[in-house]
Design goal:
The chain has 141 residues and is of the alpha+beta class. It is 22% helix and 48% strand. It has one helix and nine strands. Strands 1, 2, 3, 4, 5, 6, 7, 8 and 9 form a nine-stranded antiparallel beta sheet that branches. A hairpin with a 5-residue loop joins strand 1 and strand 2. It is globular. It starts with a helix and ends with a strand. The relative contact order is 0.19. The N terminus is likely disordered.
Length: 141
């Protein structure tokens, strides 16, 4: 009975400690994303079922900026996105356009200077799966 009690006490302590670390981590993502970000890389890679790869680098302008506001709104110089939702527990950033269409990106990196987001999709091309990976890297302005 004593071993069971010690094991239970250990598990409760471990869970509370893990929870206390994850809450500030989630809050830091919420605070860290707020501000102006300039895209420095926008690249897509497509892989056909037969293994053929297509890579496309999108031309970026030094005036391209995205400003993430604390209220969930975005000021986007490209006028593509108007709001966002951040799901720090699973590292997902959802961007919404004017029609409320959602694009879900995995947050690969988010720190004081750099944000890297990645979206993976599978479409059909000539009746076969076509895997697309779109990567965007931002630098804080």
């Amino acid at each position: 009975m004593m071993k069971f009690f010690n094991l239970t006490l250990f598990m409760v302590t471990f869970c509370l400690t893990a929870l206390s670390f994850s809450i500030p981590y989630q809050q830091s993502y919420q605070k860290m994303i707020v501000g102006k970000w300039q895209p420095v890389l926008s690249e897509s890679e497509g892989i056909e079922a037969n293994g053929n790869r297509t890579v496309k680098n999108y031309k970026l302008n030094s005036k391209d900026l995205m400003q993430f506001n604390a209220d969930g709104s975005i000021i986007d110089s490209g006028q593509l996105y108007f709001s966002y939702e951040l799901h720090p527990e699973d590292k997902i950033l959802s961007l919404f356009d004017g029609g409320n269409y959602e694009r879900r990106f995995e947050i690969a990196q988010l720190d004081k200077t750099t944000m890297k987001i990645v979206m993976k999709e599978t479409d059909k091309y000539k009746g076969e799966p076509f895997h697309i990976t779109w990567t965007i890297v931002f630098k804080r302005r």
